[in-house]
Amino acid sequence: MSRVLRYVAAAAIGLFVASLILSLQGYSAGAFLEVLRMATIGSPYAFLDVLRWTTPLLLSGLAFLIAARVGYFNLGVEGQIYVGSLFSALISHLLPLPPVLAILAGIVAGIAGGVLWALPCAWLAKRWGVNEVVTTLMLNYVAVLLCTFFVKQFFLAKVAGGGTIQTITTDKIEANAELPVFTPFSGLNLGLLLALIVAAVAAFVLMRTRTGYELSAVGEGPRFSQFSGIPVHKRRFQAFLVSGAVAGLAGAIETQGVLHSFIAGSLDNMGFNGMLVSLVAMNNPIGLAASAFFFGILQNSQLVISQATTVSSYLVTVVSALFILAFAANPTRFLVDTWRARRER
Amino acid sequence: MPDQQSPAVSYVELAGISKSFGDVRALDDVTVTAPQGRVTAIVGENGAGKSTLMKVLSGVVTPDRGTVRIGGVERHFRTTRDATLAGVGMVYQETALVAAMSVWENVVLGWEPGQRGILRRKHARRTVGELAERYSLPVPLDAHAGDLPVSIQQQVEILKVLYRNADVVILDEPTSVLTPQEREGLFAAMLNLQAEGKTLLFISHKLDEVLASAHHVTVMRHGRIVSSQRNDELDRRGLARSIVGRDIAPIDLGTRPERGATVLSVQHVELGALHEGPGIREASFEVARGEVVGVAGVSGSGQHELLQVISGLVAPDAGTVVLDGRTRKEVDSASDPAATLPALRKAGMSHIPADRNAVGTLRRRPLWFSALVGRLDDPEYCRRGVIRRPAARALAERIIREGGVKASGPDALPESLSGGNLQKFIVQRELLSDPVLLVAEEPTHGIDIGAARDLRQKLRDVAADGGAVLLASTDLDELLETCDRIIVVFDGRIVLDADRQDCTEESLGAALTGLSAVPA
């Protein structure tokens, strides 16, 4: 009950401020609600677009969550997605395969890229106790710039007519490696199904199995785990790599499902948004899908608002930041506590 | 200092205090007075209301009814700051100093002397130094608080209270973290406080300490005062009876069996220090079936390391540990403790760790989570990698039932249980597997006398059923009451290994401080 109230209050505060800003600009007070309506059920494809954004958010949220379960703060999801995306694009160019195999190869390559980028951080944390917040955050810059450099230097797309190119991007991947889309009017693709399956399996493993038990124990009570005979460092290491793998998968799905190439800059903030998704879900694997869906709506609103109004799409970023702030501050806690105290008397 | 015999003025008066939490009446019309320059002890079992009463006095809890008078003035505390301003200070059981700050900084923290926002460091340090001298609390002013032993940290906490001009000093179970020697130091400090006219309130479980230090003893049970008497009107047995509400029978040691087969053999074990002190320089001893063997040692003597090695949490640098005829090598191919522990448990070892919060249970997970320790290889509880929750819940329920644990059920969080109840849960969990060797570290720490007696009886029962028990305790009375044999560790070596009949509190005390040679 108090949990529901917490979400509702945070959303209400975000909505109120957004409406206030819009009305100061001369729009009607309900303008932001209208934007939300258009972004979700306004057109036949709006809802599909929300799901298209939900897909990478769900996976990057899951990547953050898995590491968080064992007590790691994986801020490197961003970079791991980048590397996963590039690997997935490159394998298609380097190794042309028949239809289904090409898709699988791309996904495996993406996962490998994510794991590869998580590996040094995981190893440093395990072997020397190096703080993973520092290593993952720093490697993000390396990932973004190195991938961009690599593409520009060796795999830059050939432009028809030999003109100069504006964005740094690889050639389109083989059609065989593309994830099938549901309609040509939306980026929504088979990746959603994949993400849902992965999230469901992860939720089951985390909540019901011995592995999940051990991961929770390691994250919440390292000394309890040691006492119970759980190999603490090994489990944390494994979870870190799985976290990287899920991030890599998110990158591969972006490449194979929507972008159909590696495009520098198009993946920005996907990893950090995943962190927000996981935080709002309070690191609960069941709540993750709902949280990803919510952020998917906001992401899609960002596109709609710039089309429908003259207001900057940053307004939506402000709203989501306000939502997070209000959620973290938990203003209703005071009300709930007072109400409880009164009932006790 | 007032004459011991003359009726002293009541400085603290708590009258008709009642407080309920939900449906639970924690305090029911409680009236207590404490005279100036005296020690008033408040004793009672866990949950009797002692702590709640002291929280009322120190402003943590607001009572539903009743009045608080300090020095004849009625007070209504809304916060601890109100209480501090009225001269009431509390020294908590667990110290809460800032490890990275110096002692004097810790003392002034929160009430720093300043001028326009600038800390007057020299002045502050000098004030704290003078205070320490006046009350004979020899603390190193410039040392980092985190580097100090617990006993000194506690003295810093007392200084902190005095620095805030407390006339009333509440000590909440101050001796539970201290060794016998450190305890004497605390009592000396308490005498100084009395001489300076402070009003002391002393909460304790340990009757001998109460009788040795308090002028007045007030007994609480179920949120009420059951008796309030002068020290010279009391004896240990009567006091124990009024606390528990019934007679406490001495534990049944059973008939001492003939020395059975060796269960645990520790040979020439060596280990570097884990925290401080010498580690283990050399240790060899054996424990046989049917035996309860006590392990005593002043903190930092190496007994902690010894128990860590025996319970498989740490691999020794040299030497062998043999459990029930199986060497560590046989149960464990690698030296990885994570591989050793499950094998040791399978071989029949159980372990009650000293730290029930961080080691014994997982605080924020339901009890059934913590009930599963050492049982994940059992298909009853985990089949094909999937945890069987109904079985785990049933297991937790059984532990709660058989251990007499007060908990709402298998889904209760460990952090919602009182310390004593959590300890009962852990003990029962470890007893459930019929251990061949039970390693028990401070199992009665913070548990009231009735429950502690039952727990010691359970340790004896393990031995009577053919198991062996290794009991580590800083309470010499507990060791003398429960054990067949007592081992004393000093400076990383076993300096005493004697049958109980040959031990006295004096001989143990001498061995603990390294004063005695190996006895005849």
UniProtKB/TrEMBL annotation, chain A:
Assigned keywords, A-Z: Cell membrane, Membrane, Transmembrane, Transmembrane helix
Membrane spanning stretches: 7-33, 53-72, 79-95, 101-125, 137-155, 188-207, 239-263, 275-298, 310-329
InterPro entries for this protein: ABC_transp_permease (IPR001851)
Organism (species): Paractinoplanes bogorensis
Compartments (UniProt record): Cell membrane
Topology in the lipid bilayer: Multi-pass membrane protein
Stated name of the protein: ABC transporter permease
Keyword Cell membrane set for record: yes
Highest taxon above the source species: Bacteria
Automatic annotation (TrEMBL), chain B:
Highest taxon of the lineage: Bacteria
SMART domains: AAA
Alphabetized GO MF terms: ATP binding
All residue ranges annotated as the ABC transporter domain in the record: 12-247, 264-516
Record key words, sorted: ATP-binding, Nucleotide-binding, Repeat, Transport
Pfam families: ABC_tran (PF00005)
Transmembrane segments: none
Protein name as catalogued: ABC transporter ATP-binding protein
